[in-house]
Write a structure and sequence with these properties.
Helix content: 40-55%
Distance between the termini: 61 Å
Largest sheet: none
Length: 75
């Protein structure tokens, strides 16, 4: 039952981010200063959480990676 709920929440968040109604279906209008994009950020977090629940952890894409050092090497 929990997996079904997580899948439905992820699907709803995905559809909300796709915005197939071209702005008609909007919880908080995007033109409100400072709070206009909170609903989009929340939908993104729900989608990332649902994907992580099912084993697809996309949060590693946003981490800094250590740069390769091509400097001088002592021989």
């Amino acid at each position: 039952m929990k997996s079904l709920f997580v899948a439905l929440a992820g699907l709803f968040a995905f559809l909300y981010l796709l915005n197939p109604t071209l702005g008609v279906f909007e919880l908080v209008p995007d033109n409100l200063p400072l709070v206009g994009n909170i609903d989009d950020a929340t939908a993104t977090m729900v989608l990332l959480g649902a994907l992580r629940y099912f084993g697809y952890d996309l949060t590693n894409l946003f981490r800094r990676r250590q740069a390769l050092d091509f400097g001088t090497h002592s021989r």
